[in-house]
Design a protein that fits this description.
The chain has a single domain, classed as 3-Layer(aba) Sandwich (Carbamate kinase). The protein has eight helices and eleven strands. The protein has helices at residues 27-41, 59-64, 69-93, 115-123, 141-151, 185-190, 198-206, 221-226, and strands at residues 7-12, 46-51, 98-102, 111-112, 127-131, 156-161, 166-167, 179-180, 182-184, 211-215, 233-236. The strands form two sheets. Strands 4-3-5-2-1-6-10-11-9 form a nine-stranded mixed sheet, sandwiched between helices. Helix 1 (27-41) links the parallel strand 1 (7-12) and strand 2 (46-51). The longest helix has 25 residues, at 69-93.
Length: 239
């Protein structure tokens, strides 16, 4: 079955890289995610990724303990670079040419983010992993994902989460939480659904980039989603 998309951005939270660990990286999980990305690239879809850093350091938790928020967020952005390099290593072990581009200049480690260069990498069928968020404190990696999806001209932003779509409440805590197959951006914002932060949703809305939420932990889910199969929630202008 052919893919519904030409180019997509995959957003992976830092927590998604932990596996069953309490913190840090689970290399088996990173390897499995790399295999999922390769499977989608092998369908002929251009793939770029944004990774979070919450498995290593979360800025808000640092700020709550008295650390200045900007400093805490800077540390969180550095954590995303470590995660990006780990995913790059796993992908290249599978024979997938990959580039890490950082919003914080770190030339000895990875490329700096240059939009036209990133697009060229995608056109050459390389996977591009965007690290360091937007490069600015006070912005989440969800907002960075929305920003990069727009800049890259992606057909959709695919957010890999801990559940198989968007629910009215956390289904792990609320037994009768309602699951949605489709939502409009307005509904998502008005109901204050915990999908992505408001800035990320608004940016996708303004640029007509659908958000597709699916289960990170289901084998083959990424490839299923880009082919229109499986369980997921689509958030778009028309719902």
């Amino acid at each position: 079955m052919a893919s519904e998309y030409r180019r997509v951005l995959l957003k992976i939270s830092g927590e998604g890289l932990m596996g069953n660990r309490d913190y840090g990286l689970d290399l088996d999980t990173v390897q499995r995610i790399a295999e999922e990305v390769k499977a989608v690239r092998d369908l002929g879809v251009q793939v770029c990724c944004v990774v979070g850093g919450g498995n290593i350091y979360r800025g808000l938790s640092g700020a709550s303990r008295g650390m200045e928020r900007a400093a805490a967020d800077n540390m969180g952005m550095l954590a995303t670079i470590m995660n990006a390099l780990s995913l790059q290593n796993a992908l290249e072990g599978l024979g997938v040419f990959t580039r890490v581009q950082s919003a914080i200049s770190m030339p000895q480690v990875c490329e700096s983010f240059i939009r036209r260069r990133a697009i060229r990498h995608l056109e050459k069928n390389r996977v591009v992993i965007f690290a360091a968020g937007t490069g600015n404190p006070f912005f989440t990696t969800d907002t960075a994902a929305a920003l990069r999806a727009v800049e890259m001209g992606c057909d959709a932003l695919l957010k890999a989460t801990q559940v198989d779509g968007v629910y009215s409440a956390d289904p792990k805590k609320v037994k009768d939480a309602v699951r949605y197959d489709r939502l409009t951006f307005h509904e998502c914002l008005a109901r204050d659904l915990a999908v992505m932060d408001a800035a990320a949703i608004s940016l996708c809305r303004e640029n007509n980039v659908p958000i597709v939420v699916f289960d990170l932990h289901k084998d083959g889910a990424f490839a299923d989603v880009v082919q229109g199969r499986g369980r997921f929630t689509v958030i778009s202008e028309g719902g």
